[in-house]
Amino acid sequence: MFSSHGRLASSLTVLLLAGATVADNARSRAEDAFKTLQGWYNPSTGLWDTAGWWNCANVMTVVADLALVEPSVMDNASYVFNNTLIMAPPQNPHPGPEVKVNSARDLSARVNQAVNASQWLDSAYDDDGWWALAWIAAYDVTEDNQYLQLAEGIFDGLTKAWGTRCSNGGIPWNPSNDYVNAITNELFLSTAAHLANRVPSQKDYYVDWAQREWNWFLAQGFIGENNTINDGLLDNCQNNGATVWSYNQGVVLGGLVELNKAAPNETYLETANTIAKAAIETLTDSNKVLHDSCEPDNCEPDATQFKGVFIRNLEMLQRASPHDIYKEVIINSADSIWNNDRNGQGQLGVDWAGPLHNPADATTHSCAMEALVAAISV
Ligand SMILES: *[C@@H]1O[C@H](CO)[C@@H](O)[C@H](O)[C@H]1NC(C)=O
Ligand SMILES: *[C@@H]1O[C@H](CO)[C@@H](O)[C@H](O)[C@H]1NC(C)=O
Ligand SMILES: *[C@@H]1O[C@H](CO)[C@@H](O)[C@H](O)[C@H]1NC(C)=O
Ligand SMILES: *[C@@H]1O[C@H](CO)[C@@H](O)[C@H](O)[C@H]1NC(C)=O
Ligand SMILES: *[C@@H]1O[C@H](CO)[C@@H](O)[C@H](O)[C@H]1NC(C)=O
After folding, report:
1. Closest ligand to Cα 73
2. Is the pTM for the entire model greater than 0.85?
3. Which of 65, 274, 306, 327 has the fewest C-beta atoms under 10 angstroms from its C-beta?
4. Burial 153-179 (b: 16+ CB within 10 A, else e)
5. How many domains does the chain divide into?
């Protein structure tokens, strides 16, 4: 009796220790990746060198995602959010004509206009959506209302683009190109749904926009025959059969998780699970490591960012509707990145199965870091 009890106790101890070691590894890997990431952070631009404007919204989001589960990086993350808020707007590559503050050298003018959304809008509506979600992520960790206010302002700017094509709905890609793509509309859905859960006084307004977008999205041909989402629509509003990118299977998942929280409807998580499983079937290799079809040579400068977006949103779905296969994709991708896709400086590359493919830059690194961060929580 005593000895078997003792054996049980000691094997429990071993199990607990093993669990703790795995978690510590995931944490220390992600923290290590954060230190490497900050080697690219440029305090005078508020952006990460080697990453473009929209990419940087995703880089900032991974910093927020880490801070949410790892309080020890909170001070560094808060510094980044504030500094980026003040310093980044002059880097906007296509600011609207009325944005005067962009040219102001005067720091106090910038501080005064910090939450003025017009500084963050550029000529691509998807870019605007990435920044809205990035500021929501910063709000989630800091509870600083100015970040939420900025996200609301950006969303308000996007609503003005609603409804010119395809059943008089949706958001086109940008003001001068009416290509209707999935990502812009998924971002609009996700931003509206996130805001519905964070701005109680305007909840109905944001739920209404999210549902309007989602019902429109379902009625168009974005979702192809294998339940994967193609890049966009033809001029006649039919599915254009273009590349099944990982990020297009991702943003929609987080959007539906948030919408289901704000206005429960069992179809939301059902559809999210169908899309997530189809994406895993289509985009992971035999080790359940995620890929995009551009690897390794043809992903820069945009598609190097995509897989992290999928993983971030898959992790949101895993929290709302857990499936072993989601956990497996997150863990296997993170392990493979760490073991096979890291150079001597700790920089992470584009092909998560490895070997490391140059360049490893702030886009490939932040993208892979998203998997290391997700692995902390699953
Ligand atoms: C975090 O902030 C401290 C203090 O400013 C700084 O020394 C350190 O390099 C920062 N770490 C990262 C990862 O940026
Ligand atoms: C925010 O960043 C700006 C620019 O670096 C700086 O001048 C200001 O002191 C920072 N504010 C806080 C509260 O850290
Ligand atoms: C926001 O910035 C735009 C462009 O500089 C300006 O026209 C507008 O008045 C600003 N809004 C506020 C509330 O300051
Ligand atoms: C659907 O999956 C089948 C089998 O993997 C594949 O041959 C086909 O090309 C896929 N269709 C699309 C539109 O991706
Ligand atoms: C649930 O969502 C689906 C898809 O948007 C919609 O068709 C259906 O009417 C919704 N059900 C309810 C009860 O609102």
Report:
1. 1
2. yes
3. 274
4. bbbebbeebbeeebeebbbbbbeeeee
5. 1
